[in-house]
Amino acid sequence: MQRQLIHWSLGTWDVLEAQDRIRFEQLVLPHLDSAANLARWLLRNRADSEDVVQEAMLRAYRFFDRFHGGDARAWLLQIVRNTCYTWLQKNRPSGLMTEFNEEVHQRPSATPETVAAQADERQRLMLALESLSPRSREVLVLRELEGCSYKEIGEITGIPIGTVMSTLSRARERLQRTLTAAAAKEML
Amino acid sequence: MNCELTKTTVHGYFDGELDAVRSTEFESHLESCLECQAELKEIESLRALLHNSNLYEHASPQFRERLRKQLAQATGAERVDAVSSRKWFLAPAFSVLAAAAAALMIVLLLSPSRTQSARISAELIDAHVRSLQPGHLTDVQSTDQHTVKPWFDGKLDFIPPVSDYSEQGFSLLGGRLDVVDGHNVAALVYARRKHFVNLFIWPARESEGLPDNSGSRRGYNWSAWQSGDMRFCLVSDAAATDLRELKGLMHR
Fold this sequence. Notes:
Chain A has two domains: 1-97, Rna Polymerase Sigma Factor, Chain: A, CATH 1.10.1740; 99-188, Orthogonal Bundle (Arc Repressor Mutant, subunit A). Chain A has ten helices and no strands. Chain A has helices spanning 2-27, 32-43, 46-62, 72-91, 93-97, 112-117, 121-131, 134-145, 150-157, 161-187.
């Protein structure tokens, strides 16, 4: 009887765990692309961002019982963002301090080939985006690539909703200026 | 730049985030403000550039696969951890467990139908969850009750009642066979907004004598009842009120 009881309770546990797992797979996993995109742009590097997204996903799974319905994408992106900033603080603390990041333009990978490739508009845009501060970059990526509303951006980044508009305005202005400067440089 | 709105409001307008009043106000301002007009054009072309440059980074299939394995491993590992870390107190706890088992046995003997219904509702939730796995939801896929109902003919020793309630917000998606408590049951699947609802139907057996009941477990709600000589049970992650509504529709 005791054995049976223990087995029975483990069985129920399995069922409940399977339910959670499936709910997680239905609600959270569909937003994996959004997670990958945000992390890639925050960390400016795919390999690092995959490690961070993996960690964020495991964290999301562990804390899944704290998700009480609502916007699963915003909930997940909030975790992804926090995990990204923790990673940045540990691995690239200097990048977090500066408002504008010159280091990007002097990366050792700038061989003649990549310089030639920078003529490509897309490449130029990527560099311009990457040169922005993480705070500017994240609002731009969330708004323009992810299509988030101001409310969602506020929820994900913790920026008060009243400030999202001005943050976004500054970020766009900076991106615009960087692009113009890059184009001028090329003309020389 | 002198216009203050150029720095802020034009962005809210562009993003469709202004309320109707502010939006109208801004539009009349825009007519006469060259700065704002220029800014609007600029952010429009910036957006077009961002959208057309293929910057979105999707998760690669390799990464997806790696993540799937990691998740499976992590959930498995957590369980092993939980069990092994409990081992040390298992011995003294065993007497407690034995006492609890004895107490539970008395409860079991006193109210067999209660525990039986708990077991069956757990099984039904299990069946519901299983049905949500890809390709498991329906054996016959049709929104037409006159297609779904005959499909069951010859597959079960009873014919379940089948109705579509699309107009009331519960669309019939199809049906399938399932096994609950060792017996074949009919399962009808309804869509309620973005939720799936499974309706399990089987002939009541005398030994069951189950009371009507409903409840929830880990986000899944169920509602079970008997009508005539048939048993019905709804299971879904939709709200309990939705289940009550569907039950009400069936008895109208």
